[in-house]
Design brief:
Length: 247
Amino acid sequence: MTPFWIALQFLTVLPIELKTIPTAQQNGRAILFYPLVGLIIGGILFIVACLFAKLPVFLLATIIITLWIWITGGLHLDGLADTADAWVGGFGDKLRTLQIMKDPSCGPIGVLSLVIICLLKFALVYVLIEQHQTLFLVFVPSLGRIVPSILFLTTPYVREKGLGRSLTDHLPKTASWIITGFVLLLPLYWELQGLIAIISFLISLVYLRHLFVKRIGGITGDTVGAAIELSETVLLFAFVSSYFYLV
């Protein structure tokens, strides 16, 4: 179970203490448990939404977004900010883009990207609650956490060192594809609405992968984090907006 605890420690702020330093193989296998950790995150969001269902929708949506950011430690938001800064400041140059990504400071474009993505997610969660489809919140973080598997399985990792290199080299490919396929089927509980959301999710991920390969020749940890945030937002948007066209 060590890979599971590694995944839970890495993806959340829950107080998990590992008895030993993880090996490269354990880090690679941990990615298989990312979707399960996503389900745990989504389950917590759903339970909180149910417990405080009598609150005004605006307040409840604010609580959900705040909890979502807190429980993940803003991990992927950090990747989004670094990627946004690098994409604008890199001026199309690969080396400059990679250098900016390594800078721990957050520039104005990075801050703007965080504001926009958080506003979009807030609005989408607000509408999701209004539509009485809060159950979908359980699956959004899980789907977001199959993004690393898909990218690591299909895209070169451009840095020579780091956690991403360990994941790429030791990720169990067959098991990862099986888990990814299973998670992609979960939104079909909502039939056509869920299918539209999944197709939109996959199209956005393919497009993001294309952008990453075109600019830097592959992916980094920051671009994976950005892809998680953006694909989750597209998934929510497609699910929420399709409701109004299908009813």
